[in-house]
Amino acid sequence: MLRKEQNDFVTQTGPGTPMGNLFRSYWIPALMAEELPEADCPPVRVKLLSERLLAFRDSEGKLGLIDEFCAHRGVSLWFGRTEEGGIRCPYHGWKYDVSGQCVDVPSEPAENGFSQRIKLNSYPLIEKGGVLWTYMGDPARQPPLPEYEFASVPLSQSFISKRFQECNWLQAMEGGIDSAHVAWLHRADINEDPLVSGAPGNKYNTSDLQPVFEVAESPGGLYIGVRRNAEDDRYYWRVTPWVMPCFTGVPPRGDHPIHGHFWIPIDDHQCWAWSYDFHPQRDLTDRERQLMKDGNGIHVTYVPGTYIPASNKSNNYRIDREAQRSNRTMSGIWGVGFQDAALQESMGPICDRTKENLAGTDNGIIMARHRLMKAAKALAEKGVTPPGVDPAHHRVRQATFFLKRDESFAEKVMDTMPHELGAPLITV
Amino acid sequence: MLRKEQNDFVTQTGPGTPMGNLFRSYWIPALMAEELPEADCPPVRVKLLSERLLAFRDSEGKLGLIDEFCAHRGVSLWFGRTEEGGIRCPYHGWKYDVSGQCVDVPSEPAENGFSQRIKLNSYPLIEKGGVLWTYMGDPARQPPLPEYEFASVPLSQSFISKRFQECNWLQAMEGGIDSAHVAWLHRADINEDPLVSGAPGNKYNTSDLQPVFEVAESPGGLYIGVRRNAEDDRYYWRVTPWVMPCFTGVPPRGDHPIHGHFWIPIDDHQCWAWSYDFHPQRDLTDRERQLMKDGNGIHVTYVPGTYIPASNKSNNYRIDREAQRSNRTMSGIWGVGFQDAALQESMGPICDRTKENLAGTDNGIIMARHRLMKAAKALAEKGVTPPGVDPAHHRVRQATFFLKRDESFAEKVMDTMPHELGAPLITV
Amino acid sequence: MLRKEQNDFVTQTGPGTPMGNLFRSYWIPALMAEELPEADCPPVRVKLLSERLLAFRDSEGKLGLIDEFCAHRGVSLWFGRTEEGGIRCPYHGWKYDVSGQCVDVPSEPAENGFSQRIKLNSYPLIEKGGVLWTYMGDPARQPPLPEYEFASVPLSQSFISKRFQECNWLQAMEGGIDSAHVAWLHRADINEDPLVSGAPGNKYNTSDLQPVFEVAESPGGLYIGVRRNAEDDRYYWRVTPWVMPCFTGVPPRGDHPIHGHFWIPIDDHQCWAWSYDFHPQRDLTDRERQLMKDGNGIHVTYVPGTYIPASNKSNNYRIDREAQRSNRTMSGIWGVGFQDAALQESMGPICDRTKENLAGTDNGIIMARHRLMKAAKALAEKGVTPPGVDPAHHRVRQATFFLKRDESFAEKVMDTMPHELGAPLITV
């Protein structure tokens, strides 16, 4: 349970807020690379951390992320024309380059230097691993590029998607680091979905409904371990790495590609839920890739022409009460991604954490909130660089393994979770 | 005319408001019985008096009305699965019985008593007369069940419907206790609608357009009498009983089934307008029942799959200007229920009573407001049980009759209006 | 750039605001004459300057503009029936004449004078030139009728349209007095649109992209002159007359009909953008009229049954990125009216002028704001009648002409712009 002021603190990420400044310490995903496919393609409106921005590629293919609105009289540059090294406002022809610098005010003589004095706010935008990343903080503190494995493997080994979600980012992320809900909300899916079923370890998720959480601090965040009883005096462990502020990996299932999420605030009431799949040692197969496109695994299908999930609040997530009644699904909703979205959005735009009652299986959530708030305060009060900024913190890997009941989880994960790019899966 | 603070006082019914506490002194209709038809049927989201609740039937058919949101992390239990004596949250399997008591937290060992300490707020929900009633007040003050005649006769003798209305409950109720508007807004209908036309008394409604209101206090509310001139030195009297906080009966017309309304706040900007028809001495005929289903009389037709009237704000109530021009309807809107909804909603979400100009025919409204405010204050300041809580107050009946011009209305209604269940209609 | 409090001052026009009082000093367009075509036609809801009003014609064809809501209990008189010299509320039959005077309260005896004491707020509504005009200010200060030429010529010589716009009136008007954007936003249109193309002067708009603004005060507002280089040591001048508070004329192009706009606040977030075309000396041809109906020139096509532009915010103004890429249009939007609406609306409901960076070509805008604020203050503080109230101020005409480079613009416009009704075009 949080007090009202704590809940406000940890959920608000607009300019000037402590959590907003925390988010502005990191490279965060801004767009799918497919949204800006080529030089001079149409620009895209992007709202991130409550700021309205415009992303575009210039005629040389360079990426820009600048204020959405022209510095002149405030019209949206989304109507702008990308041309010869910049984007030109269609109102009076003011032109900006990818850094937001105004490079032409046609009505003013070039020699008076008017345009040089005009610059829109802008952020770097770089492509890595099929994602366009931005850093919205103080340029003097800009960290090296992210080194998450999903974004470091060749594109042939990965599949990345995003979906629009109508709620605050934190309750979405809290769902993602909560391995306990899998046995309930996704129970049918771990047996039926071709992208997660068939793994030898799956059976423990439903045979032991009293998982025990053990959470260890990692340099960049947490290792959230969940153990369930297995045969031969062993535990079956699933370990979710969480890297601040919002990156996670779902523990692997057999040799399936591994996957995970990150959640980026659009504003305080909306977020992007990103989902990645990759295999560290091989290309995805055509079948796997097609299944992902078709909304299997953690991915979804869309309202055509948008990144809005096809099952959404406006259609009651196409709830199927008959499937629920016959116990084919717990929630009556089809698809892991739709299920997560439905329940997370049902909490309201911002979950009221003053009313919650946390249990032992929420230890990962409790510790993640604690680390977020502590890091935001340390940044605000002493300028301390938060965990997860250093790319070394990104090189962690989700894992499933067995341990003897008397073996130490903490020791195991400190050895196991950091990984080299392309190392074998740690999986059962 | 009310002052701003009076208008706020009498229209706001959320938790902690004086009028909200008044409403919480009564059994009020929460759902149609048809909305929860059988054991383990899908649950229904219900917002009442600005509280978001969930209604469901468990596997034994028992009715529950509990907080909509799981006590754990706040997801909506509307996605829950009803199973074996309760509803189970699909997120982590927490299960609640109809009293809101948590009876299972699967991740916790049963012996640690965790689930026993978790209880959602809940209210009793009972079926009577085709309606599911709830009492949202202090359990120590819970009154006996309501004894309104429409809900006490066999179901074969009654027909009940509800419709969603986009305005505060009070302006809707004020329309309902206002017999004067019948001669204008519903003028065509009293001559043409098969469920109200043909009564000998109807002619006086349109022949005397200066009705005189006489209002008597009843134990539970008011008897609102309206007299119009009739032949032979007589008055034709129509008497609307109003029982606090919001129950009325439309004066009868010949041998037609009798009908009336009650209005239940959803929140301060929306309400449910309920409509009932019944005959105290006989079953409704198949034809009568079909006419009601088809939106005749005071009932309406719906947007399919909802309780939203088919004529509504979004389609300008399907106004028919040609029918209005040719004087077939005063308002251009077809149907008594649609007419009432259109005009009441047109006042805005909450009618601004600081601007009104009341006339003699508004005496019933003036006295009803007065009783409501007085009772809410007496409850707040001295804990006085308000009128209308005692079921004896419910046993009143709408009536139409003749009196000689020198006969006393007050004496007549005190004798006439209280009634025995199944007594003959008092009608002209 | 304006300070926050200046931006609020100049954009807010509700009752009691200084700019609202300024607007209430003038006759302003309220409806198209076609909206109230004949006696006893359906009434029309009209929101102007944040006031909700009802316009109607009585059975004699007289025009009324009164409060939308019945003085009795507040229902919308839009549901009223126009009959015998007034409009009758369908709720209880209260009837009002075009002055807002209540002339019948059927439930009250005529002799008690009840209805005489009831009067709705009302404003005069008069038809002139295809437009219904109102004056919403102090009756004691009501000025003579407007004498704008577009509304003074025979209807056969004019074509008038309006469109709904989702933004504050001021940013729309600022677009209209800004001749500089024509060469960019409307570049393709001045060469292709049959209602503006072909004029000898058009070439200067695109050959000289550094127009110089010279602005002269006129008795009623401004003469906003824009000069561009032409041959033979001459300037090509385009002069936009602006008459307070919101009337403009687009400088003429050859012998095409001349056109212009006025923008009327609905509330602070919405306005009506009016567009007129007329020729001072001849009837419009059938072809010209048809082209205007089809959305050419400054007119638009509509969502059927409304005055909402067919290209609008909900459909991203049907942006055509391929046409933009191939440079057929700067903005990707087709049609001058749609282009203006798109960009003006993209600034948000109220443009944030604290962030703007004005250039030399914004001199007309700067001076217009200055005159508006100065006049609103003089009215508020000293009761000074603002410029543009005197109909003599309306008799100005847009113009295009050549001057030798050393000839005085100010002298020329003082001679040229005032005009007699039906005088020849001043055009190149």
UniProtKB/TrEMBL annotation, chains A, B, C:
Organism name: Paraburkholderia monticola
InterPro entries: ARHD_Rieske_2Fe_2S (IPR015881), Cholesterol_7-desaturase (IPR050584), LigXa_C (IPR045623), Rieske_2Fe-2S (IPR017941), Rieske_2Fe-2S_sf (IPR036922)
UniProt keyword Protein biosynthesis present: no
Keywords: 2Fe-2S, Iron, Iron-sulfur, Metal-binding, Oxidoreductase
Domain of life of the source: Bacteria
Domain (Rieske) ranges: 27-134
CDD domains, alphabetized: RHO_alpha_C_DMO-like (cd08878), Rieske_RO_Alpha_PhDO_like (cd03479)
Protein name: (2Fe-2S)-binding protein
GO molecular function (one): 2 iron, 2 sulfur cluster binding
